[in-house]
């Protein structure tokens, strides 16, 4: 693929942040989806920057900590090209369990640690990874606002927050973006969360816009590495009869994609992009080939007929299985 300009979109209105039309989710380069290779991951990040994908997403919990170090190493010498997003709040204990921490003192400490691992003097977009239901959101966002005032953070965001939480947070300090799962397979936020974001002028950053790989049409679950979490009950959509039902939906997407001369993954990404210019998906990948395929989706224009055909092929709610085996950490 030759280099191209994929353009930009703006997240947020009260605290606007211009980012590339597509971002790059870096999580899988270090955690959850099988073995990682640092050299290959850095090559993917460098190729992304060359293609104009300058919005990079990581988190302190990916690894934990290893993904931020990887991204920091990859962007060394190219910081001025990057819009850098990271997250705090998911704390992994020595026994492997995870707790959510939104206490102000933790917010400050986590930010300083992320800055050090990333090797930068500021974070462009700093998210609370999950809402701490034991700490008033006003206290957490108040601490995040202090980081903005100190120059350590430029913009703040939330992840997997409910509409009510978003409103309370935005009243303390402008929220630039919400990161949450959104794809042809996950559309529950369309009821209340997406209208709230648009009312308040907050951008949406969908993670897993390809349904954790299912919507690419290439994923063979029985051939995934043993340590890939998609093989576990943590992701019900990949198990047994649910997987069979969901692959049948993917087959319909494949038919539409072939008729349009694109891949299923490109069609699925184009659908997300078509939902509004305030939406910037962050598909993740560990391969340059798949990165280039994803980038090409930004140039695909879907007609009303295309969108209607996708709606018929994958009706909202048709996917079988919850997003996670344990939905309790999700703010509702």
Task: Tell me about this structure.
By secondary structure, this protein is an alpha/beta fold. It has a single domain, classed as NADP-dependent oxidoreductase domain (TIM Barrel, Alpha-Beta Barrel). The chain is built from ten helices and eleven strands. It has helices spanning 38-50, 66-75, 104-118, 137-149, 163-172, 193-200, 240-260, 264-273, 288-296, 304-313; strands at 8-11, 17-20, 23-25, 55-57, 83-88, 90-92, 98-100, 123-128, 153-159, 177-181, 203-207. The strands form three sheets. Strands 3-4-5-8-9-10-11 form a seven-stranded parallel β-sheet. The protein has a two-stranded antiparallel ribbon with strand order 1-2. Strand 6 and strand 7 form a beta hairpin. The longest helix has 21 residues, at 240-260. The mean pLDDT is 96.
Total number of strands: 11
The end-to-end span amounts to: 42 Å
CATH class: Alpha Beta
CATH architecture descriptor name: Alpha-Beta Barrel
Task: Give the number of domains.
Answer: 1
- Structural category is alpha/beta
What overall form do the CA principal axes indicate? globular
Helical residue percent band: 25-40%
Rg on CA atoms, Å: 19 Å
CATH topology: TIM Barrel
CATH fourth-tier homologous superfamily: NADP-dependent oxidoreductase domain
Query: What fraction strand?
Result: 5-15%
Q: Can you list the strand order of the major beta sheet?
A: 3-4-5-8-9-10-11
GO molecular function, one term: oxidoreductase activity
Keywords: Oxidoreductase
Protein name: Aryl-alcohol dehydrogenase-like predicted oxidoreductase
GO cellular component, one term: cytoplasm
């Amino acid at each position: 693929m030759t280099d191209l300009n994929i353009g930009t979109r703006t997240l947020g209105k009260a605290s606007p942040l211009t980012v590339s039309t597509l971002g790059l989710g870096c999580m899988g380069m270090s955690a959850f989806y099988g073995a990682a290779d640092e050299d290959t991951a850095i090559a993917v990040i460098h190729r992304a920057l060359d293609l104009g994908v300058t919005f990079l997403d990581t988190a302190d919990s990916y690894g934990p900590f290893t993904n931020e170090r990887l991204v920091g190493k990859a962007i060394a010498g190219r910081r001025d090209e990057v819009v850098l997003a990271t997250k705090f709040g998911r704390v992994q204990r020595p026994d492997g369990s995870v707790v959510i921490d939104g206490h102000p003192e933790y917010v400050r400490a986590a930010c300083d640690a992320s800055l050090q691992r990333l090797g930068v003097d500021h974070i462009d977009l700093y998210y609370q990874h999950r809402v701490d239901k034991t700490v008033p959101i006003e206290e957490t966002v108040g601490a995040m606002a202090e980081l903005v005032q100190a120059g350590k953070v430029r913009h703040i965001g939330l992840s997997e927050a409910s509409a009510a939480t978003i409103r309370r947070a935005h009243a303390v300090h402008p929220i630039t973006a919400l990161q949450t799962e959104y794809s042809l397979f996950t559309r529950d936020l369309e009821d209340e969360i997406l209208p709230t974001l648009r009312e308040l002028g907050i951008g949406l950053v969908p993670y897993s816009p390809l349904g954790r790989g299912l919507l690419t049409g290439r994923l063979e679950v029985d051939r995934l590495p043993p340590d890939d979490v998609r093989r576990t009950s943590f992701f019900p959509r990949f198990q047994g009869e649910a997987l069979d039902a969901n692959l049948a939906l993917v087959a319909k997407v494949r038919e539409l994609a072939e008729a349009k001369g694109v891949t299923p993954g490109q069609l699925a990404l184009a659908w997300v992009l078509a939902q509004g210019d305030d939406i910037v998906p962050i598909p993740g990948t560990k391969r340059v080939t798949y990165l280039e395929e994803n980038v090409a989706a930004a140039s695909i224009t879907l007609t009303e007929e295309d969108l209607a055909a996708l709606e018929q092929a994958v009706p909202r709610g048709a996917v079988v299985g919850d997003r996670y085996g344990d939905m309790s950490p999700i703010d509702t």
